């Protein structure tokens, strides 16, 4: 279960729950290779970083295989970034 007090959000993909969290490690990776425009590949990279921050052991290939509409993925990333900034 996601803890909103810690800036976590929940994402359900194919009946499985994932906790997304913006961590200092994710921020460091984003700083090292910033997002210039939100392509599908960048969206997958962001989701992977946020899922890792939530404690999941995933790589970009795992996340790319998720049956998730791009709009739902972008919404989850936006919610997590917003929650992490509060």
Beta-strand content bin: 5-15%
State the assembly state of the protein chains. single chain
Q: What would you call the shape? A: globular
Number of helices: 4
Order of helices and strands: EEHHHH
Please give the alpha-carbon distance between the first and last residues. 19 Å
Biggest sheet character: 2 strands, antiparallel
Mean pLDDT: 89
Provide a compact summary of the structure.
With 86 residues, the chain is α+β, with helices and mostly antiparallel strands. 50% of the residues lie in helices and 14% in strands.
What does this structure look like?
By secondary structure, the chain is an alpha+beta fold. It has one domain (4-84). 50% of the residues lie in helices and 14% in strands. It contains four helices and two strands. It has helices at 24-32, 40-53, 60-64, 70-84; strands at 8-13, 16-21. A two-stranded antiparallel ribbon has the order 1-2. Helix 2 packs across helix 4 (70-84). The longest helix is centred in the C-terminal third of the chain and has 15 residues, at 70-84.
């Amino acid at each position: 279960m996601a803890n909103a007090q810690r800036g976590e959000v929940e994402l359900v993909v194919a009946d499985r729950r994932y906790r997304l969290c913006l961590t200092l490690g994710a921020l460091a990776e984003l700083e090292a290779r910033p997002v210039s425009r939100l392509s599908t590949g960048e969206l997958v990279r962001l989701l992977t970083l946020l899922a890792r921050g939530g404690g999941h052991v995933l790589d970009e290939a795992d996340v790319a295989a998720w049956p998730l509409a791009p709009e739902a993925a972008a919404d989850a990333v936006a919610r997590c970034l917003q929650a992490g900034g509060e």
